[in-house]
Amino acid sequence: MRQLTCNLHPVLLVLISKNIPTGGLMKSMLQPLPISALAIFLLIASSVFGQSTSQSDDARDDFAQTHNKFDPHGSIEWTQYGFLPTHTSFNHRETTLTRANVASLTFQWAGEVGMSSASAPVVGQGIVYVAADGMIFAFRASDGTPLWSHFSCSGVDTVQAALGPHALLVGDGGGDLAAYDPVTGDQIWCRDESGSITSAPAVDEKTVYITNGSDVVAVDQVTGIGRWRFTPSDFSPVTNTPAVFHDMVFVTGGNSVFALDRMTGHELWHTALGLQSNISAPSVAANTVYVGGTALYALRASDGHLRWSQSMAGVSITMPAIAHNRVFVNSQDPQFGLWAFEANTGAFLWRNAMPGEPESTVTVANGVIFDIAEFGELMMFNSATGAFLGSIVDPNGHPFNSLFRSQPAVVNGVVYIPTFDRFGPNGVDAFKLPCREREHGTDTSNSRFTECEIR
Question: Residue 3 falls within a domain, yes or no?
């Protein structure tokens, strides 16, 4: 297997494209670096790009991580966009990958899906699911062996799947929603929801929730029977993945955020945020709904009251990730980069300009932020300080997918990342820590064997 180390040249591309002065730093990057010099450079890069007002190492999450009864399967799986139905994008159970070892992540396998860009992956039951063009693909999580692939119902623009307790749920651009057996790929049911499903479904214990451009729809996962349908009274175009929190469903569309009763779909409240050009899906934690757009917004979940807004982070702010009492987002000009804010007050914590202007959602796990950068490499940062920890790239030079609604999945010590190369082929890559062979002996035997051990 090819072992990948920190890839720094795309960082230089970001510097050049943003006209950031580099001085002698640029000259140093153009020369081969010995290991000692590389270590020094990483320290300099972290201090140059990571502006921090908080240096505490908060390995303990004192902010209320939304780990509720809708956590599917009771095991460590990445079952949907944003990890949980609340979309916090925070895998609070990850323990293998740490700030000290993520720079050693090594390429393991790639699963190809053809020339179209790969969606964000879903991981569960030992299988990785990726959508591309009009199809859904399943790969064995341990080695990338293709297990099955199918066209979605309409076979048009299939979106990221969601793995519920009862089925794999898949929507597509033709407006069809379908349920599949996660192991065999056999279709269980398919129904036409009209419109166009352009974002991933969300799932809880029994229900799948989708948007089709004009409606929010709730469907029984087992039977495919519709539970309810909500159409905004102001005809806001609802296109983003809904978020589920306790007995409420939250959805964004146009310039607004809507809260719905989870059982009936009746509107509970509706808050207008002002003119938005690219509003994000909502994420929810500690009775607060977070939304990105022309600013970063925090709304009280119970009544939609605006708790705070933060406009210093540029525009096209991505769906917020929430962990360790912090909110993490990517943004575009004029203030591009990766940002961290205090979750309760919106106070600025730190900014790192290294990722550039990606549209993808960040992932947080065990004190590490995983961010698909603008130029297609995966960058990793310290969630407490914003310090750069390392980066990885596809071994064949395919850029990772940094477009809207893309996201890396981090589960059980493995990072799964979709690719988007306009010249193809594309797919999903898996990276994990390298293995090493160790020889063992005993006092009573000269027998030896080898084992694969995480280091």
Answer: no
Query: Residue 50 is part of a domain; what is its CATH number?
Result: 2.40.128.630
Output the pTM of the full model.
0.83
Pairing of strands 90-91, 363-365: parallel
Does pLDDT of 78 surpass 90? yes
CB atoms within 10 A of CB 398: 22
Q: Is residue 155 part of a domain?
A: no
Are 208 and 164 in contact by the 8 Å Cβ rule? The answer is yes
Range of the structural domain that residue 293 is part of = 9-114+237-438+447-454
Cβ atoms of 313 and 339 within 8 Å: the answer is yes
Measure the CA–CA gap between 429 and 283, rounded to whole angstroms: 26
Mean of pLDDT values over 115-125:
96
Residue 86: both structure tokens together: 């609340």
Structure tokens at 127: 């299988």
Residue 170: is its pLDDT beyond 50? yes
Main-chain dihedrals φ then ψ at residue 380, nearest 5 degrees: -125, 140
The answer to whether residues 143 and 109 touch, using CB atoms and an 8 Å cutoff, is yes
SS3 assignment, position 399: coil
Q: Dump pLDDT digits (tens) for 209-248.
A: 999 999 999 999 999 999 999 999 989 999 999 999 999 9
Q: Are 212 and 191 in contact (CB under 8 A)?
A: no
Give the total residue count for the chain.
455
* Cβ 64 vs Cβ 285: under 8 Å: yes
Residue 242 maps to a domain = yes
Give the angle 8-9-14 at the CA atoms, nearest 5°. Answer: 100
Domains identified in the chain, total number: 1
Q: What is the DSSP string of 261-303?
A: ETTT--EEEEEE-S--SSPPPPEEETTEEEEESSSEEEEETTT
Task: Check pLDDT > 90 for residue 1.
Answer: no
- Determine, yes or no, domain membership for 167: no
What's the rounded Cα separation, in Å, for the pair 100 and 1? Answer: 22
Mean pLDDT for the chain?
84
| C-alpha to C-alpha distance for 68 and 370, rounded to whole angstroms | 24
Residue 435 has a pLDDT of 80
> Please, which pLDDT band fits residue 16 given cuts at 50, 70 and 90?
very low
Contact 342/325 with Cβ under 8 angstroms?
A: yes
